[in-house]
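#random but structural
TW: two for the price of one
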Amino acid sequence: MSGPRLTADLWVAAYLARLRLEDIAAFIVARGDGTAGAILVKQSPLDGTATLHQRSFDPVTGERQWMVLAQGPEADVDAAVARQRDFDPDLWVIEVEDRDGRHLLGEPGLE
């Protein structure tokens, strides 16, 4: 059973703080709705590729989870972000840059 939902802006602030603690570079590419905006996390290992993560609900358990929305050449992933932003202008986009591919999305409190 999950606890109370955090607002989007509070979750983003906590996420960026956790990344800073691990010396993982990250920044906000697009600021969405502070209360209920959906969040995309683009992870770039700085090699010309990227992975785009989106938080969704598991249809069986109803729990929130992170899924891969797009993966491959960074230009293709950026195009996927642009399409999502056209569809949902209240969307947050966070870019994480780490050569080891770390993003911490599976860590307790961030899932």
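TW: number two ↓
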Amino acid sequence: MHNLLPLPCYLNGEFTLLPDAKISVMDRGFIFGDGVYEVVPVYGGQPFRFAQHMARLARSLAELRLPNPLTDKEWFAVASNLIARYTDSTRASAQNNDQLIYIQITRGVAMRDHAMPDNITPTVFAMTNRMVLPSAEQRAKGVACVTADDFRWEKAHIKTTSLLGAVFARQMSVDAGAVETVMFRDGYLSEAAASNVWLVKDGTVLGPPRDNLVLEGIRYGLIEKLCQAQGLGFALRRIHRDEVLAADELLLSSASKEVLPVTLLDGQPVGDGQPGRVYRALYTGYQAAKKEQQPATDTAPLANSLSA
């Protein structure tokens, strides 16, 4: 028995409900985790930074030698349809309709063989669900994280469905009663289990470089823009563990966390143990960015997201 909610989804050209969506047990996504995915936040019925998500999806597909089965406009049509179906099924209004659109493409169905088969049809899946944002208490007090060595593979820049390493890392924080696991590779900051990590020192926001050891979150570009708008320094470079432990502020970013302050790391306070001024500035800017790209009315078209 499953406990899947009857939420709308898209599978290989057809719209259906999650409990009714079926794929072959020989799908390479099921057998090998041979696929990629994207998660697009939706605010007020409007996909957020959709073009940037499509660009990252294309990068991941290219790494796996998979052609993109849909154009950006076709993906946007799928997302728009799912948003509308979700709104209808949950009776949510367009102004109270924050969702997460999940997109997944696997290599497709073939007999089990590690080599990449030719001429098979990819499995194309998308679904939507309610977005759960951090609580007011988490924003007011910050959250706790733990640290760990980064034991994952060295192609973290691919947003692949092979996520067992991230599952193990996230479970470490769950076991410790924390929100995330901040990881280090050879003594240098990489990322968290399901978030990017940002260090604040002397008013400058620092993050790991864009390389194969970190998944470049969509918020990389957004946070850089917010820093520029707020007059904050911004730099990407290798960050030693000692710098993280001596940070004035530590922040997480992701589609569902947006930007979130870390005030406790391995049981020790970060900075003064309270959310800092840089977090508050970035959070305020983030909320403004969300409002800027939303339609003015419930019936406004969604097409502007492709150029957001």
